Amino acid sequence: MKQNFTVRQGALDGVEAFLNVAEHRSFRRAAAELGVTPSAISQAVRALEARVGAALFIRTTRSVGLTEAGERFFARARPAFEELVAASGAARELGQRPAGLLRLTVPRSVVPILLEPLIASFCQAYPEIEVELAASEELVDLAAGGFDAGIRMGQFISPDMVAVRLTKPFALVIVGSPAYLASRGRPARPDELREHACLRLRRSNGALAPWSLNDNGRSIEIAVSGPFIANDFPTMLGAAVEGLGLAQVPAPLAADALRTGKLVAVLEKFVPMAPGVFLYYPSHRQIMPKLRAFIDHVKGRSRAAS
């Protein structure tokens, strides 16, 4: 039957005491260095010898030496213990100051309009933090993927996550190119979308997302059809600019194309509002300083923009 732990519980007890006695060849000097009594050191070493199953020291009234078993144990335990101490120090350092690798999973659409200026200012403010962005439309498991946090539209975030707002709520606009609208006409009502080429989004679970609209305060969903399917909003936006059909995308993503006339908004009074984009992370997890620094930076930028 498989054991729960490769190393038995308590197997490391007494190792630090043993190493100090072996280095000083003295129980008394080892006790002084560790700030305990010589009897406490003796008890720790005896317990270690009992677990190992061999005498580790040769003791006389005048001196302390290592047995052959003690020499072998010392040769392998000392570098291993030093590595443990160094590992603890490295982990403690990351737990005390903003440093290390901050991994974020984000959708492609938020990188150019939101994260590029935010990440640039954050990296300048915290030079000891490396930021890694994994751009994907999939709703990944943060813990399983080794991510510190994620960024998503609010409606896709699990309720057991802590969410920090990055943007205000925004509209999900319906847009088309001037050339497309000239050839196919502008829809005036939601039911007319069935007569148009509508670009569709395939969600990470494989389903095609319906278009959401707001009809006098009533939320409705329409299963549209069209010649093109993408799995992210930037690709859909590019297809709309090329005149393949109408697309429903977040307003901030379409802002430049609308301003320059590459796209035109339609059905404006029927577009719904999305809750916005949020940074999210597990609520049960201790926040490392690197993530706390990023959260504070986000909040600071939000206050400055409002």
Structure keywords:
single chain; 306 residues; alpha+beta; Arc Repressor Mutant, subunit A; D-Maltodextrin-Binding Protein, domain 2; 3 domains; five-stranded mixed β-sheet; four-stranded antiparallel β-sheet; 10 helices; 16 strands; disordered N terminus
Structure description:
The protein is of the alpha+beta class and 306 residues long. It folds into three domains: 15-94, Arc Repressor Mutant, subunit A, CATH 1.10.10; 100-168 and 277-305, Periplasmic binding protein-like II (D-Maltodextrin-Binding Protein, domain 2, 3-Layer(aba) Sandwich); 170-274, D-Maltodextrin-Binding Protein, domain 2 (3-Layer(aba) Sandwich), CATH 3.40.190.290. It is built from ten helices and 16 strands. It has helices at 15-24, 27-34, 38-52, 68-94, 110-125, 142-145, 178-184, 233-241, 251-259, 289-305, and strands spanning 57-59, 64-66, 100-106, 129-135, 149-153, 161-165, 170-176, 200-202, 208-209, 211-215, 218-222, 229-230, 247-250, 264-266, 273-274, 277-282. The protein has a five-stranded mixed sheet, with helices on one face. Strands 7, 13, 14 and 15 form a four-stranded antiparallel sheet that branches. Helix 1 crosses helix 2 (27-34), helix 1 (15-24) packs across helix 3 and helix 1 packs across helix 4. It is rod-shaped. The two termini are 61 Å apart. The relative contact order is 0.13. The model is unreliable at 1-10 (pLDDT under 50).
